[in-house]
Amino acid sequence: IRDRPNWRLNNARSFVTKLLSELETYITNSEYLTLILQSLYFVLTETQGLEKLIVTSEALDHFFSILASSPENVQGLILSIFLHATANQACVDAICASDRLPQFVGFLRSGGLEQRRILLEVVSNMVSCSARAVEGITTSGLILYLLSYVVQSDDEQLCAQALGVLKQTKASSGLDTRFM
Fold first, then answer.
1. Do 20 and 60 contact (CB within 8 A), yes or no?
2. Which helix (H) or strand (E) holds 120?
3. Rounded CA gap, 76 and 116, in Å?
4. 119 and 160 in contact (C-beta within 8 Å)?
5. By C-alpha distance, which of 8, 7, 84, 26 is closest to 53?
6. 92-134: pLDDT as tens digits
7. Sorting pLDDT into bands at 50, 70 and 90, what band is 83?
């Protein structure tokens, strides 16, 4: 019953808004931050239409600040939230409009293996649903990082994911990429 209560959240929008406002308060407390992010993830996956709340400029500022300074389990939660949100084209366009792709690139370089895998799934979602994401990826330098994972990765799954994103980007952009 603890994992799936049999009651419904009456005002999910205000609950998500409250959780987002609490992020800054608990940014240095990993335990509370984890609870907030888990709650946010569960509400987003159980309700529709609230994804746009997490791609506001203020929320993205908080998420990227947390990504830069938190333990891997917290990073994984944030990336899972992004993974859910990037199934929505409007959310992908909002992320691209906020010029956050360079921050993704930076995290792709510094994140742990599991976090890089989730991030590549996020980028794959973005490329599959948004021309704006394809344009951003081709102009942000992300292509070079993806290529480096294909050429230098010690992890076959990461290599395959990076190659998949490169192929999606090529197919969506019409780039003349002879390396493919």
1. no
2. helix 113-129
3. 9
4. no
5. 84
6. 988 888 888 778 777 777 778 888 889 889 989 988 888 888 8
7. very high
